[in-house]
Amino acid sequence: MDTAPGRGPTIRGADPSAAPRPSGAGAAHAGDAEASFIAPFERVFAVLKRMASNYATLAVLDVRRAAVQFAWLVAGGIFIAVLVVTAWLAAVVALAVWLIGSGLSWPAVLLIAGALNLVGAGIVVMRLKHVFEQVPFSATLHQIKTDTPEAHVK
Hints:
By secondary structure, the protein is an all-alpha fold. It has a domain at 29-135. Helix content is 75%, strand content 0%. It has four helices and no strands. The chain has helices at residues 25-101, 106-131, 138-146, 149-152. It is elongated, with a radius of gyration of 38 Å.
């Protein structure tokens, strides 16, 4: 038996024209015309279906990869934040120990450390204000608000 891609098994030596046909020449001709008319549409539909399936698979794989990358980004950001906070606290404690060694009282050292933390927080707030000067999606919101039928009629 031979098998060709896209075809079922065939027997060698069998004459394909010897297959039984519907009686009457008009029935055979109509079946061939119908098959020849529908066959290209079926092929196009099959190709479009495969193409849509391939694009869907690609999109799912891209989303999965992006989710893994985002998870790594968040985990890395948390780890970096913990290390930066630890370094900041170590610097403030080192300054406090040095100030105590210089003869300052505990309340004065704590006041200086607190003021240093407030200055650092103020610097972060000022930097964040510049990041959020423009509202997210402002261009989209502006387009939606100005794209009304009344705006076109003037």
